[in-house]
């Protein structure tokens, strides 16, 4: 039986990106999954917020510049509001000295382009059953079965919330402005994107307590839109649904360990964070870049599955993944509290932070990979 250097398990964005990147190095790679995008992936209504580091990786993979024009929208400004009048934190690309803060990308279009790129990768073989490989990279997502079989601890703290995703249209041009509302008990984000209505569409990410999310998912369209417009206060215009609604449970989770002899975990199989900072896929693609870098620099006599080699990857990703998980967890707890002293403090904190440009610049640099 033919032996590969790396078997990638999982054909989502992280798995496909890893297979493409390793194949570009000339490694013999097997990707366990479908060569085609599944109906669920094609119809995915989510929108990803990608930072500069993620965009660089996708450009290197010859994927970014092949995406449809309306599948990518730059973010020039971010406005974060609290739950009291005047509580506002603003970020702008101009203040940071960059052309854009981030890009919003259509999830289905990105999946499709990654799948298309794989068809032209001579070193990547799509397989439908596991094959022998020096290294198995688990990119199977939060419900990875192989992770459990390896005996990896996946410590998960459920938030008791679900995130609702949908595509929206509005009667007011978004002008590249992302909007977010932090309050108790929900976090609402409107991400500017050009599909389906150029210049006047948003991707919705609305994190809500479990029962409230389920009620809104089941609500008639008019009732859902009324709740959404009440929550956004008309700041993004009159919002209407332009797609179906999907949702997923939210949790903070970490795998321990993330590597062992001949195997490694990446993406949601290794860590979950709350979507309030839009960093989930960015962390997964940063895992990809780190593992690719470690394997590119490996000594010629080491195999791809050498445990000492994989520890280099684990060390490189430990602090960034832990820090983002802790940051999102603390932010959620602060903004979920209904205690009046905490509400006063967090709203004053937003306004105070807005007046300290150096601190805002530091936060932007860390969060957006600039």
TrEMBL record:
<dbReference type="InterPro" id="IPR018168">
    <property type="entry name" value="Ubi_Hdrlase_CS"/>
</dbReference>
<dbReference type="InterPro" id="IPR051205">
    <property type="entry name" value="UbiH/COQ6_monooxygenase"/>
</dbReference>
<dbReference type="Pfam" id="PF01494">
    <property type="entry name" value="FAD_binding_3"/>
</dbReference>
<dbReference type="InterPro" id="IPR036188">
    <property type="entry name" value="FAD/NAD-bd_sf"/>
</dbReference>
<keyword id="KW-0560">Oxidoreductase</keyword>
<keyword id="KW-0503">Monooxygenase</keyword>
<feature type="domain" description="FAD-binding">
    <location>
        <begin position="130"/>
        <end position="324"/>
    </location>
</feature>
<dbReference type="InterPro" id="IPR002938">
    <property type="entry name" value="FAD-bd"/>
</dbReference>
<feature type="domain" description="FAD-binding">
    <location>
        <begin position="4"/>
        <end position="90"/>
    </location>
</feature>
<dbReference type="GO" id="GO:0004497">
    <property type="term" value="F:monooxygenase activity"/>
</dbReference>
<protein>
    <submittedName>
        <fullName>FAD-dependent monooxygenase</fullName>
    </submittedName>
</protein>
